Amino acid sequence: MVSNGEGIITGDISEEYNSGTAIGLIGIVLAIFALFPTWYYVQAEVSAGEYATDGYVDIVVIDGWRGVQVYDIKSGGGTVSLASWCIPIGVFALIGFLWSAVSILRSKRSSTRSSMFFRGSIITILPLIAIIGIVVLLPHLLPENASDAVVGILEKMASSPLGGEASETYGDYLDVKMRWGLGYGSIMLIASSAIQFLGGILERRVE
Q1: How many domains does the chain have?
Q2: For residue 17, what is the DSSP state?
Q3: Domain for residue 153, yes or no?
Q4: pLDDT tens, 118-174?
Q5: pTM: predicted TM-score of the whole model, two decimal places
Q6: Structural domain containing residue 164
Q7: I need a labelling partner for 37 at 20 to 30 A (CA). Which of 10, 30, 64, 82 fits?
Q8: What whole-number distance in Å separates Cα of residue 188 and Cα of residue 31?
Q9: Is 91 helix (H, G, I), strand (E, B) or coil?
Q10: 38: helix, strand or coil
Q11: H helices then E strands: how many in the chain?
């Protein structure tokens, strides 16, 4: 550590930081890693017919790095990209998390770090709230040439955005099974938010 005032981090770490600081920073690191895995997914399986698939295939994938990806089932059971909204959530979030970590390490007051961890805990969970909103709106965002099966699947998902499974019958598609829910990235975001919140509590107790 640098103690001459010239570095980013100053002071004696044994005096300035505590277990709350370490736990909170672990939460921030976890949030950074959570940007890459899938946050939310929708998958479908067509059992027979022209559009039969080999197991479940992705229909909607949302993550922090690629944004929202929507796929349609094509003849032969494969998928084709139908729409894409490359929202740079990951870029802004990565910058924000790194800046937050530096600001926390520069702070000499436990109360200040505690507030930062509490604020970070809330910010980290915001993407999940946004995802629910996106999931509800997806049926209204699809182009007119989207197949009835995809429209039906997304409408079913929008009615129960937190996750689930269902079966539908769509003419030539015959029986279509679908499943949707939170991916590993969302679980990591939830864990990160909880860890940062715990770090904030421990920091607050030091004061």
Answers
A1: 1
A2: -
A3: yes
A4: 999 999 999 898 888 878 887 887 777 776 766 777 788 788 888 888 777 766 556
A5: 0.75
A6: 17-206
A7: 82
A8: 7
A9: helix
A10: strand
A11: 6, 6
